[in-house]
Amino acid sequence: MSTPPSFQSFTTSRGARVFAIPVEAFPNFFAYAYLVQTGGMLTLIDTGSGSERSHASLEAGFEQAGAALGIPVTFADLTHILITHGHIDHFGGLVRLRELTTARVGIHELDVQTVTHHEVRLAVMGRRLDAFLEQSGVGAEARRDLLRMYRFTKAVYHSVPVDFTFEAADMAIGPFEMIHVPGHCPGHVAIRLDDVIFCGDLVIEKVTPHQSPEELTPFMGLRHYLEALSNFRRWADGARLVLSGHDAPIPDLNARIADIRENLAHRLHQTLDGFAEPNTVAEVCKQVYGEIGGYNSLLVLEKMGAYVEYLYQRGLLEISNLNELEGDGNPVIRYRCYQSVPETELLPKERAYVLV
Questions:
Q1: Quick check: pTM over 0.90?
Q2: Domains of the chain
């Protein structure tokens, strides 16, 4: 998203006040943090990235919320900070906020290491990502560049302790109820207050949320994401307003989920076509997405890795160079299409799942 979004105000069915605060998480990339006043709680849902611009825009949003409420509102007034998921543009602001508030900070168990032991997590993920890129057919110099970009985007953050985790709190904090919806991020949750839902990056109005393979991180991958969408659709039934971590409120959740599933099915079909002959993840990624530079080149490689993992798990792709994999080192993996199916049959029919 490059167009600056606007500050917005909402009221839930029981009178809670919700303020959507746009934050410039990275240059020309915006996210939403939500300030919620209900009863004796003043809660911040997500924090921005913690960069200078992000923190300044968060401060400006608090000033606007105070003007709307008719009383000053500061970080010191917060009672709780709830993190929807462990991506830097949603939790990175904790570094600054921890020094400015005594608010109790909560996150899901599966993302707690990302926040509380960030440096270790970054080192581990760097090694996994390097191995994934090498297997995908990315050359040594390009891998170094991609890993440098990956680490740079996380450099503004350092480890911060949290006060509680969501499952230990029975997925409820005061009037806020939660559901675990992994796939885009291992510990992703959606949060409900009365008839308003904060869905983080699970569903976004204008784009299909980013995917990466579960071989990089457990509870990622397309299978988990599709299951989460099905569970979320059922759990969100009756909500009047669905607010995402980016873009405008979602006017029709069912239609948006249908669009996301259609887009994913189309990308999966393009991916299968790319493996008509033995090919690498990197080569098919270039066929499907074209020449993409900068950090986005890493994101599309991760997406393609998620698609290939999903198709391979379902027996639609096979590894064509098994003899090379049986040797030493970390050889490039080549896949080929084992079975082609119509685009409409690439995703399972929606049903309710029980996530644990």
A1: yes
A2: 8-117+159-251 (3.60.15.10), 127-150+263-341 (1.10.10.10)
